[in-house]
Amino acid sequence: EVQLVESGGGLVKPGGSLRLSCAASGFTFSSYSMNWVRQAPGKGLEWVSSISSSSSYIYYADSVKGRFTISRDNAKNSLYLQMNSLRAEDTAVYYCARVGTGRSLDYWGQGTLVTVSS
Amino acid sequence: DIQMTQSPSSVSASVGDRVTITCRASQGISSWLAWYQQKPGKAPKLLIYAASSLQSGVPSRFSGSGSGTDFTLTISSLQPEDFATYYCQQANSFPRTFGGGTKVEIK
């Protein structure tokens, strides 16, 4: 069974940093691209970042470029999102998701809440 | 960036109704489109990929169509468990973008 479990969310002050993790199991993690998607309270879905299976290709939304860094450790079956210079507008539930057939996001984690507030 | 416009933003329907949701891309995306269902407090769930392919385990009352810029998600006979918010997403290019969502509510 495919499982994605995010962790690392919490309350952080504006300008602070946080590192999210996503532990993957039930599939060959090293064979799949992975994404981060976020959802602000009461709002829609926003794509954040994508990383290819070997980390060769990395993309970011303009809203996080230069502040967030996506990475992965295939030996540990883990995906990460390093978030620096956090702003109030980064407050959201952050989901990791696997890229499947047709470049769709076929499996999602349960999400981890990041709150940026003083 | 490719903008995805969903309509309507909300729809009220009854059990057994046929519901159609539209998604329009600001430029052609071939068939690189997915549809997701999200219930309150839960992660999104993939329904349709490649515009018209049904994800494994998803009921056949869900169907997708379209290519290029105009796409449709149809629920042929609405069931109680289908009341949720639906999102389209383009996977043609980066940045990936989602539609604003369509909330399907009980009439």
Describe the protein's topology:
The complex is a heterodimer of chains A (118) and B (107).
Chain A: E1 3-7, E2 10-12, E3 18-25, E4 34-39, E5 45-51, E6 58-60, E7 68-73, E8 78-83, E9 92-99, E10 105-108, E11 112-116
Parallel strand pairs in A: 2-11
Antiparallel strand pairs in A: 1-3, 3-8, 4-5, 4-9, 5-6, 7-8, 9-10, 9-11
Chain B: E1 4-7, E2 10-13, E3 19-25, E4 33-38, E5 45-49, E6 53-54, E7 62-67, E8 70-75, E9 85-90, E10 97-98, E11 102-106
Parallel strand pairs in B: 2-11
Antiparallel strand pairs in B: 1-3, 3-8, 4-5, 4-9, 5-6, 7-8, 9-10, 9-11
Short descriptors:
heterodimer, A: about 120 residues, mainly beta, seven-stranded mixed β-sheet, about 0% helix, B: about 110 residues, Immunoglobulin-like, four-stranded antiparallel β-sheet
Mean pLDDT of chain A: 98
Strands of chain B, total number: 11
Terminal-residue CA separation of chain A: 40 Å
CATH fold label of chain B: Immunoglobulin-like
Number of helices, counting only DSSP H or I runs of 4 residues or more of chain B: 0
Strand fraction of chain B: over 45%
CATH class of chain B: Mainly Beta
**Main sheet summary of chain B:** 7 strands, mixed
Q: Structural class of the helices, strands and pairings of chain B?
A: mainly beta
Describe the sheet with the most strands of chain A: 7 strands, mixed
Number of H- or I-type helical stretches of chain A: 0
Helix content of chain A: under 10%
